[in-house]
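haha ok so turns out i had the wrong file open the whole time. this is the CORRECT one, sorry everyone. sequence first:
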Amino acid sequence: MTLGGRIETTLADLAPALSAIGWKALPRNSISGVPIDLLIQRKGKIIAIDLIGTAGDEGQAIALSKSLILQRSGVPLYALRLDEWLHNKNKVIEFFHNREL
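then structure:
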């Protein structure tokens, strides 16, 4: 799956910001057949981030059924709106910095 401009730009910005607070960005992948925009890991725990908010398929939220597959796999999924990242970066970083695992 090829990602478009806004998603790629956001990933290029988001991954280093999360890395700076102790999260390791894992190669973009899928879990149990569910495509993931960004996987991050800290202290052996993995979180999936779904970037949403652009027109077309690339910015669509993961369907509930696929979200449940991730939940059963033990990987929490966080939907992150692109506008939230673009306009409230510090709030998003603070959320992931304070995230207890």
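Residues 55-59 have pLDDT under 50 and may be disordered.
again sry for the mixup
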